[in-house]
Amino acid sequence: MNRAVSQDAKPKDRTDQRAELALGALASAVLLLIAFMIVFVFVKAWPSFASNGLAWFLPGGNVDEQLTNIFNSPASPDDYAYTLRAWPLLYATALITGISVLLATAISLLSAMFIVEFAPKPMRRILQPVVRLLAAVPSVVYGLIGILVLVPFVGNHVIAESQKEAVRYVIQLDGTSVLVGVLVLTVMITPIMVAIVTDALRSVPRHWTEGAAALGINRWRALRTVGLRAARPAIVAAAVLATARALGEAIMLSMVSGSVGFAPNPLDGMTFFFEPARTLAATVVDNAEGLSVKPFGQTIYAFAAVLLVSSAFLSFAGWAARQSMRKYTLQAR
Amino acid sequence: MSAHAQTSPSVAPPSSSRLVAKGSSWSRGDKIGVAMAWGAGFLLCLLAASIVLYMLYRGLQYLDLALLVTHPEVGLDQSRTGGFLDPIQGTVLLTVLATAIAAPVGVGIAVWLSEYGRPAWLARAVESGVEIVAGTPSIVLAIFGLLVFQQSFFGFLSFTAEGNAVFGRSFFTAGAIMSLIALPLIVGATREALQAIPAHVREASYALGKDRIATIRRVLLPASRRGIGTGVTLGMGRVVGDTAIVVVLLGASLQIQPENGTPVWGLLKGTGSTLTTYVYNNSPAGEGNAPEKAYAAAFVLLLIVIFLNFAVDLIARRKEPAWTR
Questions:
Q1: Which residues in chain B have their CB less than 8 angstroms from residue A285's CB?
Q2: For B280, which of A131, A137, A140 is closest by C-beta distance?
Q3: Looking at CA atoms only, how far is residue B94 from chain A in angstroms?
Q4: Hey, what domains does chain B have and what are their CATH numbers?
Q5: Using an 8 Å Cβ cutoff, are B214 and B184 in contact?
Q6: Residues of A in contact with B18 (CB under 8 A)
Q7: Whole-angstrom distance, CA of residue A284 vs CA of residue A292
Q8: ipTM of this model?
Q9: Nearest CB partner across the interface for B285, out of A20, A138, A147
C-alpha cells in the first residue's frame, strides 16, 4: 500500500535511488550465494558421482571400508579410489528423520491442541517458555545427555543379552542406536513444530469452531475437524521445517546413533531399533578432518550435495503442498 | 520451572469450557484424544524440567569457578586438562563477529524486501533464497565455507601454509558462515516489524519532505528497534549453539591460537574453539573424554542460551513509542 503512495508522491532523488540500488544488490547477493553454493559443492562432488554412476545410491559392500579405501587411495590422480555405495547412510538418514518427524508431528499436534484449547491458564503460561526453552537448547547439549545418560541406560538395561548375542557377528550393540537417535531428535524438533502449529490454531477464526460447536459436537471434535483442518498449511510448513532440521542434524546424531555405517535390518525384529546407524550429516561431521585428502573430500562433498538437494526439494514440496491446500484453509505466513 | 511438575495430572476433560458445547456427547475415542493431548502437554513440561534440573545438578556438581578462568591444557587425566577459558572467549568472539556481519546485512535485506521490493520477481526470489539458506543444514554451509575460503583469493583471512595452501579455518571464516545461520532470523523479525508500522507513519514523513531512505533511517528503523533486537538475539542464540560450523571452520583447537602479527587481526585470523566444540570433544564421542568438564561446559552453555532467551522476552516487552501504532 505504502509503496504506491510513495511512488507517485515522491520526487526521485539521487541518494534514494542509490540506496535502493545498494540494498537491492545486498539482497541479490543472497541469490548469488546460493548459486555459488550449489555450483561449488556440485563441481567438487562430481568425480564421486561420475565414477560410481547410479550405483552410488545403491547398497553393496561395507560403506565404512569403502570410505577407508577412498581415504587411503594412492596419491596419483589416476589411481584415486572412488568406489562407494552410500545406501546405508541414505537409509539411516531417511529412517531416523522419518520416524522422528512422524513422532514429532503427533506429539506437536496433540500438545498444540492442548495449549490452545484444554490447558488450564497457569499451565498455558508455563508451556510457552517451556517450548521456547526446548527449542533453544543447543544440539550438543542434547547429544551430551544422550551419550552420557540414555546410551548407557539403553545399552545396559534395555537391550537384552540374548539380543546382543544374536547379532554379535554382524554388529556390536552398545546402546548407541537408532532408538536413542530417534528419541533425542524427536525432542529436538517437536518444539519447533509446537510453536508454529499453536500460532496457527490460535489464528483460526473463533466463529469457525463456534459454528462447529453449535452443531452439537464437542470441543475435541470441533478442534480436530475444523481447527486442525484450517491449520493444515501451517502444519505442513512446520513439518517441513522440522524435517529440514532433522536432516541437517549432525553433531547430536554422530554422538548418540553410533558411528558405524550400518543399515539396520527390519528382519531383526525389536533388535532393529537397537542397531546403530549413521546419517549423511553425521558422516560429514565425523570425517571433516579428512577433507584435505582429495578423493575423500570429493566423496564428502557428494554427501553434502545430496543433503543440499534434499533440503531444497523439501522446501519445494512444502510449498507445493501448501498451494494445493489453499481452499478453506488459513494461509501459512 | 519445577512448580508445574507437582500439579496433579488430572486427565479428565476440564469442566469449564471455552467453547460452549454443553450436552454434546464424548465418545470414547474423543476422551482418549483429550487424554493424549493432556499427556503431550505434560510430556513437554516434564522433558524441559528434567533437562534443566539434570543439567543444573551436574553443573553444580562439576562447575568450579576456577574452570572459567583457566586455559585448557592437554592432559590424560580430567584433573589436569585445565578449564575452559579459551572456549568461552571463542564463543563470545565468534558470536560478536557473526552478529556484526549478520545484523547489518539482515536489516538491509529486510528493508529492501519490505520498503522497495522491486522488481517483484526479484523480491520473491530473494525471499525464497533466504528461506533456502534457513533450510540448508549448517554442516553443508560449513564445508561450503571451507571450499570458498580455501581459495587463494581469501588467503588473507586465515593461515597460509608454505606453497600457498590456504588453511581456510579462522575466526573470520567461521564468523562469516555463522552469520548465514543468524541471517534468516534477523531478516524475518525485521521484516515483520517493518510491516507492522502503519502506512500513515511513512506518509507523515514524506509529507515533511523526507525521501524514502531518510524515512527508513530516521523513522522506520528506530520504530522497528524491538523487532530487530528480537531477531538479533534469536540469531545469537543459534550462533552460540551451533557446533558443526565450529568443528569444520574454526579448527576446534584446544586453545585460541592467534597468528603472529598484528594483535587483533592475528587473533581473528587464528583458530580456536567454542563451548559447543569443547563439550563435543570432551564427550565420549570426542578425543578428550572428560565427561565432568563436558557437563560443566554444557551447563555454562545452557545458562548463556537461557539468558539469551530471557533477553528476547525483555526486548519483546519493551514499549514502543505511541506513534508507531
A1: 139, 244, 247-248
A2: A140
A3: 16
A4: 1-7+25-62 (no CATH), 70-324 (1.10.3720.10)
A5: no
A6: 117, 219
A7: 13
A8: 0.87
A9: A147
pLDDT tens sequence for chain B (325 residues):
344 444 444 444 544 445 544 555 788 888 899 999 999 999 999 999 999 999 999 999 888 888 888 888 777 667 777 778 889 999 999 999 999 999 999 999 999 999 998 899 999 999 989 988 998 999 999 999 988 888 877 777 777 665 667 788 888 899 999 999 999 999 999 999 999 999 999 999 999 988 888 899 989 999 899 999 999 999 999 999 999 999 888 877 777 777 776 777 778 888 888 999 999 988 888 777 788 888 999 999 999 999 998 898 888 888 777 777 6
Q: Residue type at B324?
A: T
Ramachandran sector of residue B286 (left: φ over 0; alpha: ψ -120 to 50; beta: rest): beta
Residue B5 C-alpha, separation from nearest chain A C-alpha, in angstroms: 10
Q: Considering only the beta carbons, identify the residue of A134, A139, A217 that sits closest to B44.
A: A134
Contact yes or no for B259/B270 (Cβ under 8 A): yes
Distance of CA A289 to the CA centre of its chain: 24
Helices (H), A10-79: 14-52, 63-71
Is B19–A26 a contact, with Cβ atoms under 8 angstroms apart? no
Distance from the B9 Cα atom to the nearest Cα atom in chain A, whole angstroms: 11
Give B-chain residues touching A220 at CB under 8 angstroms. Answer: 13, 26, 30, 33-34, 37
- B84: closest CA of chain A, how far (Å): 16
For B245, nearest residue in chain A (alpha carbons): A285
Q: Which three cell numbers stand for residue B171?
A: 575466526
Domains of chain A and CATH, by start = 89-289+310-324 (1.10.3720.10)
Residues 6 or more apart whose Cβ sits within 8 Å of residue B37: A110, A111, A113, A114, A117, A118, A220
Three-class secondary structure of residue B285 per DSSP: coil
- Judging contacts by C-beta atoms under 8 Å, the chain A residues touching residue B154 are none
